[in-house]
Every structure is written in C-alpha cells, then in structure tokens.
Amino acid sequence: MRPFGNTLGLLLAMASASALAQTAPSDLTLVTVANVTSPVAIRAPADGSGRIFIVGQNGAIRIVKNGTLLPTPFLTVPVTFSGESGLLGLAFHPNFGKPALPHNNEFYVAFNRPSSDPKLGSSPDVVLSRYTVSANPDIANTTATLVLRVPDIASNHNGGDIHFGPDGYLYMSTGDGGVQGDPNGFAMCLWKKAADNTPGNCGSGTPTYFLMGKVLRLDVDNPAATASADMCGSNGINPPQYSIPADNPHVGTSNTCDEIWLHGFRNPWRTSFDRVTGDFWIGDVGQGSREEIDFRARTSTEPTFYGWRCLEGSATYNSQNICAVPPANVLPVMEYTHANGRCAITGGFRFRGPIAALNGMYIFAEACTSEIYFGKPAAGNTWTYTTWRDDANGYGTYSGFGEDEFGNLYVANNQDGVVSKFVSDHIFDNGFDN
Q1: Which of 67, 228, 286, 363 is the most buried (most CB within 10 A)?
Q2: Residue 120, SS3 per DSSP
Q3: Residue 283 forms beta bridges with which residues?
Q4: What is the DSSP letter of 82?
Q5: Is residue 428 part of a domain?
Q6: Total of domains in the chain
Q7: Does any domain span residue 45?
Q8: Integer Cα distance of 263 and 280 in angstroms
C-alpha cells in the first residue's frame, strides 16, 4: 500500500500540472443563491447540514438551507456599521455540530464594536467574540463572550477575517488602522505603539495601539489561567479566553505581542486556508499603486514580515526611517497595479470543488472594477492569473468569497446585496455532471 503522504504528494503534483493546462469552462457562470444586505463572507460548518451562512456587514448572519434563505437571521451582532466597519468575519469551531466532541456548539465572530461600547483607541475596537448555537440549530444564543480586543484609530482597514487552521488554532487578520501610509508604523511594530507619527518608536511614549496590520494565531480551546504581559489582546478580559500556541514566532521574546503570527500588512481584508494543503492565502489591499496576494505555506520557514509600510506589493513604498534597512520579507505571489480603475483586492480561495477545470486555481477579485481573477500555478513557485467576468450577472463590489462543505465556491457582492455560486455543467473530467 502506498504511504498516504506520498499519495497526497502525487495528487497535488497532478493537480498542479493539470491547472497549468486548464482554463475555465466556457459555460462557467454565477448563479444567485440569496439576496441579503451587505454580504462580505460566506461560511459553512462541517456538520453535514449542507447549510451556508452569509455574513452581513450590517451584523446579520443569514442561513441558506436546502436552497432557501431562511427568514430569521441566525444571529444579529451589535456592530458599528459604517464604511468598512461592521461584522467582518465568522468561523465555526471544527467540532461544530459534532455532539460527541467538545466545543461542538461554538462559533466566533470578528467585528467593530458599537461606538457606545468602551474602546481602547480613538475608534471602536475590532474584537473577537464567541457565541453558541441554541437548541434550534438555525438560531444562535445572543449571549457573547469577549475573547480579544484590538484598538483602532480610524473606521477603515479593519481586516477581521477569521478561520480555524488545520492545526486547530484560530487565525485572525487585522488592518493597519487606516491612516494613509501607516505613518505610525503600526503594521511593523511587534509590541505596543503610540500614535505619534514616528514609526520607529515601537514601545515608546503612550503605547495605546497594538496587533494592527497582522495575522494573529490563538489557541481558543485551552485558555491561559492568567494573561501574561505579552498577551496584548486580552486587555481587560479576565479570565483570559485564549492562550498563545507555543510555536508562535515571538514566544519567549520580551516586549512582543505573542499573538502575532505574521505582520507587515496594510489591510488583509480576506484570507483563506487551502482545504487540501493547509496553506494560507491573504489578499492585502494596497495604498495607491498596487494590490497583492500573499501566501504562507503550511510548513514555511520564511520570514514573518510581509513588507508594508516599506513595500507596496513588490515595489518600494518607503525607504526612510525603519525602512532604510527593512527586515527580511516575503514578496507577493501575485500582484497588479491600479490601472483601469483597479483599487482594492478581495482575497479568495483555492478551488477544491467539483468543477474539475478549476481545481487548484486561486480565485479572487477586484472590488472597484468587479473583475474576478483565476490564479494558476506556473513554473517553480510562481503564479499567473487571468481575468474572468460574468457579463450576464452585472457588476457590483465583490467583497468576499466562501466555500460550502463540498468545496463549491461562492462570491458576495456587497453593493448589490447578492451572493452567487460558481456553476458549470462540466463538473467532472469525463464531461458528465453526475
């Protein structure tokens, strides 16, 4: 019997080779599955129910069950709903819907708190909270447990996407705070930082801000008995609701926020894990000239700095102060300029669903021009992409993607309030649909 690891490697190699030769099927289209207010993400628990959950920026989480949008929201989260603020992310615990396992009724949301709530910075906090489902699987309990707080300085660049990784830890993206050019250096600072327009002063002055322009990695199943000084996001939360994985990169280093896994992002708005390889993908919204897709292999030993505010994409953005000799960094695997009206990337997913021609492609979008792109692995570790549009569907602001249990891919149009599914009759390699 062939060892599983070798078999998996062979399958991935075949998928990569296939992706090089394949193009999208000619009949590929977007089919509307729901009309809701301000959708930004689509998520599905691995509970066998076949349901998809639509995250509305207005705070409402809606369910599509057996092809029908249920009239009552699963949950309405109190949020600041304005501009880029609102309900940002949803992640179901890997054990959700599995009665024999712990944490089987838990899910997490990331959002901007209401402006009336206490805040750490000058704008409402971006927070992570835990909820549970009620006896009715289509309705959540409304009592929340606050898990983590990130201070904010403006209403934009919130990040806020959350996922459980293949290691069981929870991953959360955060933006740099939204001030043009990140003059405070929040994205590069690994500790607490003052809003002093001096990017090199990490830890100096009145360090009000932290965990901004990052991807965080948390163990939410085994909370610490007490919060250490390096658990920055547990500010004012007692007892703590998470602990730090022992292999997080800054554990054991003083004056660092140990939640940090990756840093150097401007606004990592939408992220995803490849359900086959466990690799991590990040769509990071650029400043004035470039948009980028970043990548982190599951077994990567590369630097944990992804370039901002020294680089925008692969181009130099700032070469002064702390960027005069920037830290070692990881460059994007794909990027494009702001030509022809492009201005904000929406990260997507590597396709692992039933449409064979799309297998292994990374599908993402441009929010300002409503283009959808298909990224394909090329020679070595490089990627290329082509543009695909569904002219029959009309245009809006593509704001997020999501998968269902079977790997089918969905895209949210925030402007038009539409969630659509990628559909083709050419599902399997033999040309048959079942």
Answers
A1: 286
A2: coil
A3: 270, 293
A4: B
A5: no
A6: 1
A7: yes
A8: 14
HSE toward the beta carbon, residue 193, CA cutoff 13 A: 31
d(CA 54, CA 371): 21
Range of the domain at 78: 4-421
Rounded Cα distance between 285 and 334, Å, is 12
Quote the CA–CA distance of 174 and 263 in Å, as a whole number: 9
Looking at residue 208, its amino acid is T
- CB–CB of 282/296 below 8 Å? yes
Instruction: Say if 426 falls within a structural domain.
Output: no
How many helices (H) and strands (E) the chain has is answered by 1, 27
192 within domain boundaries = yes
Q: Exposure pattern of 266-279 as b/e (b: 16+ CB <10 Å)?
A: bbbbbbbbbbbbeb
| pLDDT tens for each residue of the chain, 434 residues long | 333 233 333 334 334 444 445 689 999 999 999 999 999 999 999 999 999 999 999 999 999 999 999 999 999 999 999 999 999 999 999 999 999 999 999 999 999 999 999 999 999 999 999 999 999 999 999 999 999 999 999 999 999 999 999 999 999 999 999 999 999 999 999 999 999 999 999 998 888 999 999 999 999 999 999 999 999 999 999 999 999 999 999 999 999 999 999 999 999 999 999 999 999 999 999 999 999 999 999 999 999 999 999 999 999 999 999 999 999 999 999 999 999 999 999 999 999 999 999 999 999 999 998 999 999 999 878 899 999 975 545 567 999 999 999 999 999 999 999 999 999 997 654 334 43
CATH number at residue 315: 2.120.10.30
pTM for the structure as a whole: 0.93
Sign of the C-alpha dihedral computed for residues 297, 298, 302 and 303 taken in this order:
positive
